[in-house]
Design a protein that fits this description.
178 residues; single chain; six-stranded antiparallel beta sheet; Thiol Ester Dehydrase, Chain A; alpha+beta; globular
C-alpha cells in the first residue's frame, strides 16, 4: 500500500483514519483516539467535512474551514477509542457549504456541530498543480484505508460497490456522480 507522508511541522498533527462512505449528500469516516483532547475530535470533524467539499467540487477548487457555527461536546474532555465520524451537507453554493457533523461511539454522540466551509479557485496562493493532486491522493488513500480499519474497528463497512466506483473515478480523475 502506498503511504503519504505529511510534514506540517506541527506537533501531534491528526488526520482522520479513513473514509467509509461518501455520496452527494453524506460522508462517513473513522478515527481512533488515544488520550486525545476534545479539540482533536473537532479537528477530525472539520477534516471530514473538508474532504467532502473537495470531493463534491471534483478537487477543482481549494476548500477550507471558514467557521464553526456551533459545536457541542457531550462527554469528558479526553477522547479514547474508535468513533464514527458523520457529515451531512445542509446547504451548498459555488463558494460555500454548511454541514452538520458529529462523532459517535456506539449509540452515543460525543461531539456535534455545524461547520461552514468556503471554496475558491486555485491561484498563486493555492496552487492547483500542488494542491489538487495532493488532496485527490489523500482522499484516495483514506478510501483505501477502509478495508484495514473495518476489521479492527467493527461493523462500519459501507457498500463495497459504492467505494469501488469512487476509487475508480478518482484514479481516472473523473467527477463522481451518485
Amino acid at each position: 500500500m502506498e503511504r503519504i507522508i505529511i510534514k506540517t511541522d506541527l506537533n501531534n498533527f491528526i488526520l482522520i483514519d479513513g473514509i467509509t462512505e461518501v455520496n452527494a449528500a453524506n460522508i462517513k469516516g473513522v478515527k481512533h483516539f488515544s488520550n486525545a483532547p476534545i479539540y482533536s475530535g473537532i479537528e477530525s470533524l472539520a477534516q471530514l467535512g473538508a474532504c467532502h467539499v473537495r470531493f463534491l467540487a471534483s478537487f477543482e477548487r481549494h476548500a477550507f474551514l471558514l467557521k464553526i457555527i456551533c459545536c457541542k461536546a457531550h462527554m469528558q474532555q479526553i477522547l479514547n477509542g474508535s468513533c464514527l465520524l458523520c457529515g451531512t451537507l445542509i446547504s451548498r453554493s459555488k463558494s460555500a457549504s454548511v454541514y452538520k457533523l458529529y462523532a459517535k461511539k456506539g449509540d452515543k454522540v460525543w461531539i456535534e456541530g455545524k461547520f461552514l466551509y468556503a471554496t475558491v479557485d486555485y491561484n498563486s496562493s493555492f496552487k492547483r498543480e500542488i494542491l489538487q493532486k495532493h488532496y485527490r491522493k489523500v482522499f484516495s488513500c483514506l478510501l483505501r484505508n477502509v478495508d484495514e480499519l473495518t476489521s479492527t474497528i467493527g461493523n462500519l463497512r459501507s457498500e463495497p460497490t459504492t467505494l469501488s466506483k469512487i476509487k475508480g473515478k478518482l484514479k481516472k480523475g473523473i467527477k463522481y456522480q451518485s
